[in-house]
Amino acid sequence: MEGVDRVDGESISRLLRAWRARVDARTVRELRGTVPPPGRRLSQAHVARLTGVSEGWYRALEAGRRQDFSESFLLRVAQALRLSEAETLTLFLAVCGRRPPELSRDQRELPNGVKALLEQQVSYPAYLSDVGWNIVATNSLMGDWFPWVLRPGANLMRWALLDPEAREQMLDWEDSCARIYLAMLRVAANSDPSNEQLRALVKDILAADADCRRIWAEEHDVVEHRDGHVFRLRLPYHGHAEVRVTTHVLLPIQRPDLRFVFITPLEGWAGV
Q1: In what order do the strands lie in the sheet with 242-250?
Q2: Which of 6, 70, 146, 272 lies at a C-alpha separation of 20 to 30 Å from 154?
Q3: Averaged pLDDT for residues 251-261
């Protein structure tokens, strides 16, 4: 009927463009320091960067094309575009025909002891992630070293395996990062086959990157965690000088669904 706005891909496309247009890119902390610097308009490329996907994948959403968009991706879009609850509901209903998942109170709140331990760690970067490697909380130094953790819906695996800056900042990316992280994803995906978030994470990563698909196909290694793993980094925070660090992974007894991770210089190396 003429004059009636149909609830279809075209309609959600107009809404997404309008929601994106109202966000001033200059106010998005996670885009500061990028090259070229963002102007007033938040672009599709900016939203793709903030949500950890390719520009083409986000463009398909905004164009209203039918794709298998995961719940975690749509939630990251909602955060990047600063959507209200009603707008997030509209996005989910239009794209996948269901309501967005709701976190329980217990899942949203951190135990005081865990929160205090994180905040009091001022010597080295530290963060909390959940079973799907979503960043739950960080200390200030983690944000200084790795600004990507401040992005809406930040996810370790999506950054390390899909973000181009990870390949610049993590030296020996394929052997020291990609093969280890994909081996960890293989364990996680098999440990909880009913976890839709983990299945979507693996599917999204393999769909988005040819190198990850190749490594996944040719490797059969499994790794449960990266506690004690050594990384060679080259970060803007250190003036792009090489830094060698090791990671330590703890499981808070009050929240066994979380990982407490902190990063320290390799023993005997004082470059940090």
Answers
A1: 135-138, 126-129, 259-265, 242-250, 230-234
A2: 272
A3: 83
